[in-house]
Amino acid sequence: MPRPKLDPYQFAPEIAPLALAELAGLVNELGVSPEQLCADVGISNTDMCAGELVSNRQVARLIRRAIQLTGRSDLGLEVGKRQNISHFGLPGFAMTAMRTFGEAVELGLRYQGQSGGLMDVTSEFDDQFAALLAQSRTSDLVVETFVVEELFASVMVLVRILLGEGYRPHAIELAYPAPPHAARYAEIFNCPIRFGQPRHRALFPRQWFTLPLTSHSPVAAAELRALLEARARRQQAPNTVTAIEHVLQQTGNVAMSVEEVAAALGLSTRTLRRRLTEAGTSFRALSERLRSQEAQHLLRDEGMTVAEASEQLGFSDARAFRRAFKRWVGEVPGAIHAYVGLRPQWFRACAMSDRSSSSVADEPVRSPAPSSPHGSVDDGLRGTQSTWQNWSGAQRAQPSAKCTPRDEDELRRMVQAADSLRVVGAGHSFTPLVPTSGAILSLDHLSGLVNHDAAKQQARIWAGTRLFDAGPLLQGIGQGMPNLGDIDRQSIAGALSTATHGTGISLPCIAAGASALRLVTAQGEVIECGRDHDADVFQAAAVSLGALGVITQVTLQNMPAYRLRERVHVQPLDSLLPEIDSWAQRHRHFELFAFPNSRLAIVKTLDLSNEPITKHAQGGDSDDLALKLGCELTRWAPGLGRGLQAMIGRFIKPTDRVNQWYKIFASPRNVRFNEMEYQVPAAVGAHCIDEVCKAVAASKVNVFFPIEFRFIAADNYWLSPFQGAPGEARCSISVHQYHKQDYRPLFAAAEPVLRRHGGRPHWGKLHTVDTRGLHALYPDLGRFLRLRSELDPQGKFLNPYLRQLFGVPAS
Fold this sequence. Notes:
Elements: H1 8-11, H2 18-29, H3 34-38, H4 45-49, H5 56-70, H6 75-81, H7 89-97, H8 101-110, E1 120-125, E2 129-135, H9 141-163, E3 171-173, H10 184-189, E4 193-194, E5 200-205, H11 218-234, H12 240-250, H13 258-265, H14 269-278, H15 283-300, H16 306-312, H17 318-329, E6 388-389, E7 396-397, E8 401-403, H18 408-417, E9 421-424, E10 439-442, E11 449-453, E12 458-462, H19 467-475, E13 479-480, H20 492-497, E14 514-520, E15 526-530, H21 535-541, E16 550-557, E17 559-560, E18 563-572, H22 573-576, H23 580-586, E19 589-595, E20 600-609, H24 624-636, H25 641-646, H26 648-651, E21 655-660, H27 661-665, E22 673-681, H28 685-699, E23 707-713, E24 729-738, H29 744-756, E25 760-761, H30 771-777, H31 781-791, H32 800-806
Parallel strand pairs: 3-4, 8-10, 9-10
Antiparallel strand pairs: 1-2, 2-5, 3-5, 6-7, 11-12, 12-16, 13-17, 14-15, 14-16, 18-20, 18-21, 19-20, 19-23, 22-24, 22-25, 23-24
Helix pairs in contact: 2-5, 2-6, 6-9, 7-8, 7-11, 13-14, 16-17, 28-29
């Protein structure tokens, strides 16, 4: 029986996953993790959030899975009504700049392929009405209903953005019968709904199309239209290369012959080869790349033997597979099962197993289990690569070894044997704290709860525990950490060691919540220290950049588990600055995100609450889609930066939600960046951020990221940037630049202002303060360095960056 032909349009990844990322967030709120949703679809939630294109086939599978897993038939309506201008991608931004509503619709239809639309849309007009016609790309009624609902509900959002409230369509006509949730249509569209019609149509009064847009900008319209046209010229539909890749991947047979693939795509073998030659590649090159990737996956992630992988990939025998693998990867298959990289003699005792053989205690960087929504590992320690890089990609290293000890005893032996060693948390520091030519060590296996005291509201936690794991773990024993930052990737040890913090004028950094810790020294000895015993070591080690030893356990002083109410809105920065101190005093947590070129600010407050958890309690102020799109637009068209920042109120929806403490604090941060941060005295905080914004605007540096402003209470740790007397506080001012752009011009514009106001640099954020400057800012730095020499006289825990920073010569 002949193999059925596969439509290349179904396999080619050419759809921006804007609506699908919103769908993943919605089903997560309904109790289905993104990993469950994306299982066997061929794309992860992290990939979607990063903007990786998907195929029509993947779209259909995601939609069906979402409806099946949630039991909700109205997901299309819900996804559509939740969208904002950023969900329409670059065409959405361009539509707001057009002169009239009609011009905006015309542009949106012309470039709809770039907006992530799940249907093909055209228009037609008569004397009274204009109609948008939607053509489905599937014969599956369930999927078709979803995509039609999503389209028309999102169109209503777009109408409100462009024209304002009060505009409703004349009628909605649908080609399918009334679904179980048909009553919701009146709520969404507020107009007559007609089911069982010949076509899917949304009818609008024709006079709408002559209405002017208040957001019209001739310059932005011209630049955005040029960008759209340039992108359109680069697109090919469908792309032969990606269609072939997806046929091989989705059929699960990467060993298919060129004849089989050509038949599946309905092409002759000759035509397929010609198209690949035009694309600058060959079928053999594509096939070998995919087989190489699949081979590494089978050996590393599936735990197959060489013989099993050889058979799976269609090789005649294991010997032929070994030769091919050596050609693909540069080493034999057996290296996958072991640690790849340089392994000194002293490290032979280390357990260099990779993720595929890890125990339950080995937590991925952002997830306690494969079903977590946090995404893939990002600390550079997994897999077979010999290099390491941090989250932003700016810091890289090629260590002599990478290791994850299984317990504290094994860790002590590794430390004793090492000549040079640095500990990594999540790779979320931007300064070169980790890069070393020695060993890099992860505490991921040292994770979880050691014990707890309900009466004292204390919990002893392994220091490798990730913050995103600590939240549900502590909630489960009725406790909550008093404060957290807006990123939860870090390990407990990493958060302490760099003085990671949240916001709150009466709330200190995370390290101040520690009452005791356990430290493994350079000699492999264990020191128990705390506020009431070995207090000097404790005050030095809690914020120590990993320079005194390896923290293995931490006792946290917590409070009873609690709920927070988050409120977010946008307001002019100039009306906010005179009231900043008042805002900080009125709310348990207050922060703002200032856009220098528009003088607008996103204001976020958190307060204790006894109210029920709100229906849509996930989300908050972070809209990664808008942020990424804004960054990319300003990168390619610098002249758009000011206009895009002025439109921030259109991207950010006012938020008012209640949830458990650990679900409110952290926001998704999938758009990578590099960061500089200084802590200035609270008395000059408002004046300082005002000057920073003016300096950045005057510099004309191309940036879309806002400047973050927070309050943090004082503590007494020797190297804490917040060290001060009880009752004092500092303001944290953070400057971010998109990871694809050079951060140096932006930081050069902001740093002089931050330093002039007495700012202390965050240890994990980029800065230019030298040893002499640090001694002036940190009065206990001398005490810290003397203790460091006692505990680690050979400088085992120092890398070149720390030696330079602390003025310690190479031994």
